[in-house]
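Q: Got a minute? One more chain.
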Amino acid sequence: MGGNQQRLTAFHNAKITMRKKSVDNSIPSRVLLIDDDDSMVEMLLQILEPELFQVVTADNSLKGIETVQKFFPDVVIINLLMPDMSGWEICKTIRDFSQVPILVLSAISKPGMVSKALDEGADDYLIKPVTSSVLIAHVKRLARRARAKNDPDNPNIVYCEA
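A: Always. Here it is, folded:
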């Protein structure tokens, strides 16, 4: 039997056991919103709060970075164009001390700018305008990932025997 055939046979004969524990979605996810645009903040609050997100806002970059350290959010949403520090710098600074998921919500759609944000530590990037359902879906996905990653019981254990 050839090498590939042996690997396929071993794969098919493998015993795989999975234990998955669901993440508790009844507890509100903590979201930190870093944006200096009051109207955008108000709109995002109206979208996120009815979906059981506990939202804290910061209207400048330094306050936002401090709040990440004190509030321990499940997700951070940032605007790239901030007056005191760019969103790229915010991502990089947060990544120096935290692995919290970061979602960039920006009107900038240039591929180079998007990739720069992702390279600086953003986990997701949405271009404004974005529908509320898409925004909510992305924030929920990032919050689920953060909670699963921080669960001390390690909810996704996979055992494989060959």
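A: Residues 7-23, 154-162 have pLDDT under 50 and may be disordered.
Q: Perfect, thanks.
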